[in-house]
Amino acid sequence: MTADNREATRALKIKTGVLTRVRRELAMYSDEVAKETAKLETMKAEGRDPHDVRQQDQVLGESSMMIGDCKTRMENAFNELLAATEEHGEECADSEELAVAKALLDEVEPTLEGA
Predict the structure, then answer these.
(1) Is the pTM for the entire model greater than 0.90?
(2) Residues 15-32: what's their mean pLDDT?
(3) Structural domain total, the chain
(4) Please, which residues have CB within 8 angstroms of residue 7's CB and are 6 or more apart in sequence?
């Protein structure tokens, strides 16, 4: 493997890792919003202290903001990985990293289209 191939493979591996991490973060924040929403509704139904309800609503708002941030970062990471696969596709044609990157792009693309 030449030095150029190693660099291209390394670039693909890094960009694949970034997209994987951001995708995982988005799933985590989505789960957190669902849990915090349920907790807020329970607190309201139980007639909890208004201050506690406002605090919980603030926690929910912060988690919701993170979802938008993660979607933006995921779209950027997707575009960067897509560009890298196109740029280094020939150099890394037989590499496992290219196959993993393309598979991840195929998995993430429908998520972005729905956003």
Answers:
(1) no
(2) 96
(3) 1
(4) none
